Amino acid sequence: MIKWIFAAAGFFLLNRSFMGGILGFMLGSFVENYQRVLGRAKANAHSQGRKFSTEDVFQYYQQRSSSSDFPTMLMALSAAVMKADGKILKSELNYVKTFFNQQFGPQFSGSHLQTLKQFLDSDNIPLQRICQDIQMRMQPAVRTQLLHYLFGIAKADGDVSPPEIRVIEQIANLMGVSSVDFESVKNMFYRNVDSDYTILGIDSSASDDEVKKAYRKMAIKFHPDKTAQMGEQYQKGAKEKFQQIQDSYEAIKKRRGMK
Q1: For residues 160 and 165, what is the distance between their CA atoms, to the nearest angstrom?
Q2: Which of 88, 114, 163, 171 has the fewest CB neighbours in a 10 Å radius?
Q3: Where do the domains of the chain lie?
Q4: What is each CA distance from 93 to 78, 97, 150, 170, 222, in whole angstroms?
Q5: Please, where are the H alpha helices in 49-139?
Q6: Domain 67-189: which topology?
Q7: Rounded distance, CA 127 to CA 170, Å?
Q8: Among the listed residues 192, 179, 199, the one whose alpha carbon sits nearest the alpha carbon of residue 240
C-alpha cells in the first residue's frame, strides 16, 4: 500500500509525470522493503541470542538489496547503447540530456551525467539484473516504449548500426519484450524493403485480410491512450509509433491497391 501512495504523490508532485510516479513507487517500495528488513533483522538477531543493533539492519539489507533507482537503470541502458558501436558521440549525449531534462526537469542534475559517465567508463554494465528489475516493475507497453527511447539514442547520429541493434535486441529479450514488438519498433528507425510489413508484425506474403487484421491489432495495442500516464517524451514516442503504424498500413494498401 505504501508504494502506491508514494507513486500517486510522485505522479502529481512532478506535474503528472510518469517518471514521478515510477520514482514514487520505487521510493515507497524501498520504505516497505526497509520495514520488512527491519523485522527480519530483529528476528535474526534474536534467534542468535544477540542484542539487536543498527549494524544488523545494514548488513541484512546490504546482503539482500539488488535493485537500482530508475534514473540509474536508464543511464545504464543508455550507456550500453552509446558504447555499442565503439564510439560515443555528442549527438547521442545531447539526446540523452534532452530526454532527461524533459522527464525530470529541475530534478535532472550533474549527478545523473556523472552516473552516465561511470557506466560509459565501465567494462561491465549489469544489463541482466537491470532488465529483470524493469521487467518486474513495468507493464509491457512501458517496456516497449523504452525501446523507442534506446533506438532514439542509436538514431541520434542519423544511422542505426548493426552493433546498436544487437545491444537493443539483447535488452529487449532480457526485459521480456516479444520479438514482434522489438521488430516493429526497430523498423521505425531501421528501414528495409519489408519494413512496412514488419511494423505491422507480418511478412509480405500475408493476404489482404491478414494485413487488415494485423493493422487493427497493432493500432489497438499501440494506441497512445495505452501510455497516457507516461511523461511527455514517452507520449511523443507513442504518437510517433502509432503514426508509423498508420503510414505503413496506408503504404501497403496503396502498393496492393487495397480499399
Answers
A1: 7
A2: 114
A3: 2-64, 67-189, 191-259
A4: 9, 6, 12, 21, 28
A5: 54-64, 70-83, 90-104, 110-121, 127-137
A6: TerB-like (1.10.3680)
A7: 9
A8: 199
For 163-204, the pLDDT digits (tens) are 999 999 999 999 999 999 999 899 888 877 688 898 899 988
Query: pLDDT at residue 80 above 90?
Result: yes
Q: Enumerate residues 6+ apart whose C-beta is below 8 A from 71.
A: 19, 23, 100, 104, 112, 115
Report the distance separating Cα 258 and Cα 60, nearest Å. Answer: 64
> Could you give the count of Cα atoms lying within 13 Å of 131 in the half-sphere of its Cβ?
21
- The pTM score is 0.57
Q: Is 125 helix (H, G, I), strand (E, B) or coil?
A: coil
* Cell numbers given for 43: 528476528
Half-sphere exposure of residue 168: CA atoms within 13 angstroms, side-chain side: 33
Q: Which CATH superfamily is domain 191-259 in?
A: DnaJ domain (1.10.287.110)
SS3 label, residue 208: helix
Angle 170-140-128 (CA atoms, 0-180°, nearest 5)? 30
- In this structure, are residues 122 and 60 in contact, taking their beta carbons and an 8 Å threshold? no
CA distances from 198 to 104, 152, 163, 195 (A): 33, 18, 20, 5
